[in-house]
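Hi U.,

Before I forget, here's the chain from the pilot set. I'm dumping it here mostly so it's searchable later in email.
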Amino acid sequence: MRVQLDRARICILLQEFEHECAPVHRVRRRRNGIEKNRCVKPSACEFSFMRNPNGTVDLRLAWLGRVEFADAVALQEDIVARKREDHDAPDEILLLEHEPVYTIGRTPDKSSLLGAAHLPHPLFAINRGGQATYHGPGQLMCYPIVDLRRCGQDLHKYLRWLEQTLIDFLARYEISATRREGLTGVWIHNRKIASIGVGVRHWITMHGFALNVCGDLSAFAHIVPCGISDVTMTSMEKETGKSISVVDVAREFDRFVRQKNSRATPSGVERRRRAMIVAKLQKNY
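Structure:
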């Protein structure tokens, strides 16, 4: 199914996104008496979001609720286009949920669809890597829109960062998740709890990961998930035996990302206090 852009709808989504999202850190610096945003490239990264000159992260996160898949793709494309025009634009993370759909990446091998004609939900062929998967209610979708030119243009490192982020996040729920050699995604033994598929345009990322939180997983039975035969799909709810909602997990993931990135540098108050101490030492000696 080809994504049709509804420009009016995308404008509304963009307005809602701008209203809902808030920066982890937005730093304004004064130069020649004029205040303006300024960002620089980090010299290297394990994986790092865009950072300001003082080292703080320039990142925006937003929970968008339930969004039609076509609208979510179009919204990502609009944000990617804006980031291409403005290299100082902050990196973005969109958190959302979808109505039931199947997707497949840019591959000539469509065998994971098992013919596709039998699928009970719409199918989208999109600009990501990988085989067929399912998205629907009960999954937390995370779409980081990140400029990899600031991180050495290393897609492999970015994918491993996504996996590690999920592994660390799931540990908050006492879920011991891991990677599996040669396979992208996050696993609990032989059970897959999160799928990852990324697209890149001009080194700006699209799409991201789907974390199974709760609900019915039977839709996966109509395909070969991610092209892996005999894979068992699981969810946070199944692994913990507790009732968990996507909204609650989205809120916790928002806090997790903010805390993880804010710890990298001291607060503004702490930086100013340290600067005053250094200034006094330099004056005295």
